[in-house]
Specification:
heterodimer, A: alpha/beta, 2-enoyl-CoA Hydratase, Chain A, domain 1, 2 domains, globular, B: 282 residues, two-stranded antiparallel sheet, 37% helix, nucleotide-binding (chain B), zinc ion binding (chain B)
Chain lengths: 316, 282
């Protein structure tokens, strides 16, 4: 059973009617297939028109949808022989940020990404995808290793932000994020980052300072959550929809601003409605990006990465 | 009449001051009334309780660099690319900030000497929109670093910011990797990069160039952290420990090398530069 978002109510109502009609006609002689067909078409059209004009706030909800595929789902569907690697060798292992060896399209890569979890237990275990210093330091360790052994780095970003907590501050959350960003920039191997769900602030950029940044069609990427922005600038979190609008956080806006390079299309109604189709599109995009980058000179890769960030803000 | 009074009086929407320039300032911590001139002469540190007051870019540059330094020109960046508006337009907020500040944005750099040692010093001004890091701040940081690379001297940055400038959205977030490109170049060139953390340094600034120094110096009792205290409290619903996210706390947890009184800052920087002089690294 799919859980509908608030703005999908009209679609949900239609689907309920279809289900009722089906149930009622069970064992009946009356042929309702034409009527069902008509309603299904109407429902699909409604979904299509809704998703064709999602507001930034609605996209935020899609990006946070509990059934949206996460790191685990992509690993299962897209990468063969994922070999998870654990620990930062300093403090512990943070399951909010996963990483390890993986193969995509026959190519060996280092895969790193946030995992939010899919039920209460796993959400707690993965800390809702909010990384701690040890998570970012694990990412640094894996990136440096990838660099030494010539493995391209692929990251899947999906976090509301790095964990705000006492122990995270004590262990240097800011330093860990800064060093992780630095590790991205220093890579002598290709790096492709994908914002698959939420790209929340420093916790996202620490894994997304790549030469190629991709984004799912309905993913969001911003400097602060719309709620956070609203509570600071409007002094109430209720203005989040307005904040989402003002911050320009959708993939379409960010492509225009030159912050991302490519939008990965999602199946109609969002990735959560057809994870297999979403994964296929993502797999295709990542493979294509890697094909274009693998074999390039390390200095050229670094320069490409540096130039994209140095260019931001320069008047021209 | 100071330039500030002049600007203030020429603004139609600000009430004209009836009294002359404030002669007294009140220490925000011990509430002692201090003679403004004496307070300034004491480097804006309260003589009674040692509270380190927030100071602007010009005052800071003057305190650290020998006289006769060169103030780098401010970069020209895209302004308000998002056409951002909350309760006010971002362009109006910028106008307002510029009316009460001698500079066009929150980051200034000076090239000169510290007790004879060549250095570029960058200063973030909390008084300009909370020191927030937008494209102008990011570009000014990069220009300061580029100048240090060109002069083959150290780059010292005094940080002060609530974090990224929300009105520039994702473009402010992109200043984190952008500034980091330059700290990496300094490192590769064997040039020292020294961070002086001042009150307050939080958010995206801390999570990028403020934590990437060869040496981290903090002013006493400065608020330094990644997440805001209210956010932490709302997330974990626990009492925050005493002195949490203050300089001394960060020192205890290994995030800064030393906590240095403003009176000794210049001397300390000179000493650090002696050990990290580019000639040794080359």
């Amino acid at each position: 059973m799919i859980s509908y978002l608030e703005f999908e109510k009209p679609v949900a109502e239609l689907q309920t009617r279809i289900a009722e009609l089906r149930a009622a006609s069970q064992g009946d002689d009356v042929d309702i297939s034409t009527e069902l067909q008509r309603l299904e078409t109407k429902s699909a059209e409604l979904l299509a028109s809704t998703y064709a004009s999602l507001t930034p706030w609605q996209k935020t909800q899609v990006a946070r949808h509990p059934s949206r595929p996460h790191f685990r789902d992509y690993v299962e569907r897209m990468f063969s022989d994922f070999m998870p690697l654990g620990g930062d060798r300093l403090y512990g292992d943070d399951e909010a940020i996963m990483g390890g060896f993986a193969t995509i399209g026959g190519r060996k890569v280092m895969l790193i990404g946030h995992e939010k979890g899919h039920d209460t237990q796993s959400r707690l275990r993965h800390n809702f995808g909010m990384g701690k210093p040890e998570g970012y330091r694990k990412a640094i360790r894996l990136m440096e290793m990838a660099g030494r052994f010539g493995l391209p780095v692929v990251t899947l970003v999906d976090t509301s932000g790095a964990f705000p907590g006492i122990e995270a501050e004590e262990r240097g959350q800011a330093e860990a994020i800064a060093r992780s960003t630095e590790a991205c920039l220093a890579l002598p191997v290709p790096m492709v980052a994908v914002i698959v769900g939420e790209g929340g602030s420093g916790g996202a950029v620490a894994l997304a300072s790549a030469e190629r940044v991709l984004m799912f069609e309905h993913a969001v990427y911003s400097v602060i959550s719309p709620e956070g922005c609203a509570s600071i600038l409007w002094r109430t979190a209720e203005r989040a929809p307005q904040a989402a609008e003002a911050m320009k956080m959708t993939a379409q806006d960010l492509l225009g601003l030159g912050v991302i390079d490519r939008i990965v299309p999602e199946p109609m109604g969002g990735a959560h409605r057809d994870p297999a189709a979403a994964t296929d599109a993502l797999s295709l995009a990542i493979t294509d990006e890697l094909n274009q980058l693998v074999g390039r000179d390390p200095a050229e890769l670094r320069r490409k990465r540096e130039d994209r960030f140095l260019a931001i803000g320069v008047k021209g | 009449m100071s330039w500030l009074t002049r600007v203030r009086n020429s603004l139609p929407f600000v009430a004209k001051r009836e009294t002359p320039d404030n002669l007294w300032v009140k220490c925000p911590r011990c509430h002692e009334m201090l003679f403004a001139k004496e307070y300034e002469e004491n480097l804006s540190v309260c003589p009674r309780c040692d509270y380190h007051g927030r100071i602007g870019a010009d005052a800071r540059l003057g305190q650290i660099l020998d006289s006769g330094f060169e103030l780098l020109s401010e970069p020209v960046v895209q302004e308000d690319p998002l056409k951002f508006r909350d309760s006010k337009r971002y362009t109006d907020r910028l106008k307002q900030a510029r009316a009460s500040n001698p500079h066009r944005d929150a980051f200034q750099s000076g090239f000169g000497t510290i007790e004879g040692r060549r250095a570029v010093v960058g200063v973030q001004d909390f008084m300009f929109m909370g020191g927030s890091m937008g494209m102008a701040v990011g570009q000014a940081f990069c220009n300061g670093a580029a100048r240090a690379l060109k002069e083959r001297c150290g780059f010292i940055v005094c940080t002060a910011a609530g974090g990224a400038r929300m009105q520039e959205g994702i473009l402010s977030l992109m200043q984190m990797p952008k500034a980091t490109v330059m700290t990496r170049r300094l490192r590769e060139a064997g040039l020292p990069y020294i961070v002086v953390l001042t009150d307050p340094t939080t958010g995206g600034v801390t999570a990028s160039y403020a934590m990437l120094g060869d040496i981290h110096i903090a002013e006493p009792d400065a608020l330094i952290g990644f997440a805001g205290q209210r956010v932490i409290q709302e997330t974990i619903r626990e009492q925050l420990p005493e002195g949490f996210q203050r300089s001394e706390y960060l020192h205890k947890h290994g995030m800064v090398d030393m906590v240095v009184h403003r009176k000794e800052l210049r001397q300390t920087l000179a000493g650090v530069l002696d050990y990290l002089s580019p000639a040794k690294a080359a």
